[in-house]
Write a structure and sequence with these properties.
By secondary structure, the protein is an alpha/beta fold. The C terminus is likely disordered. The protein contains 15 helices and 12 strands. α2 packs across α4 and α8 runs parallel beside α9.
Amino acid sequence: MVRVLHLLNAQADLQTRRGVEQLTPSAGAPWTAQTRTIGRGGDWRNAAIALLGMRRPLHDGIDICHAWGASALAVATLAGAPRIVYTPCTYPTSQSLRWLRAAMAYRDVQVICPTATQRRVFIEHGVELTHCHLIRPGVDFSRVRGRRNPELRQSLGIDPDDHVVLLPGETTRESEHQLGLTVVSLLHVLDPHWRVLLWGRGPRASALLRFESRLEQSRFLVCPEQRPGPAPEFESLLPAADMALVTMRRSATTLDIAMCMAAALPIVALAYPTNSELLEDRHTALLTGPGPLRILARRLLDAQENESLRWAIADLARTEAFEYFSQRRFVEQYASAYAQLAAGAAVDLPPPAPGAGLRFHGRA
């Protein structure tokens, strides 16, 4: 039985929290897991206290420390964890890459990236190919509802004829939600039925709400986090939107895009490397390169005016989400990595073959 310790930030992002939840084993699984959080409101208030707190799990004989993010990696390395799985939660910087290479010189660290774009960056900056792997995030399809929900829209103050554009995921610097908000505001000036749906979580959410208030556009922004009542989860908002607008340039968190694909939500996106890795123009999304805001606004209008195109790209995106972002595959690949690392063997995760859905749609 492999014993795993998950180490993460107390304010971890959506993708990290869902990943830890999915890797909490059920009865009969070949590994056990415990979770410790670092930061305000967590099990350990800061990294220094976490280093002291790590003595107990290490004494109990954990086999693998799974560090989610750079701060967790630092704690696991300095505490002397013998084998470490490192899943980055942000796009690598020069400083984080230097620290990772230093940690790998003293510890057995296996890097598992959520995107091929990010994996390529690590390898290009000196991380050995044999210690850098790809496991895409897993979508819990039981949480995702693809059909539009009129009752939910009404509860959020959305009219039946409103065109609601979702800005996926948490509001961070990398998500570029302010760009998406600006683009939809141009359409809102021409037609007040164009509106933005924002989850309202993330370190930059407050700044974005202040920016929106300066636009002085009534009935423009829908933000459930600002409404009374229990805070909603991101998956519950998908049936309220008509389409999603992805404006991120580079990010380690792509689970929100995968959820939009799984919910058969038509997607318009900027064609940056990470987005282009997941989406294909006029196949699973409408893509456009960096340029004037009116071009991105035109893409949204194209999607809104062409119902058959919206249906086609949404249907294909849902099919590919089942193939590429299966929760079962996510758990099986991590379980294989845990078992190989605990046994002292080389971690080898061959890429899975495309399933029948992709072959049917001509992508294999």
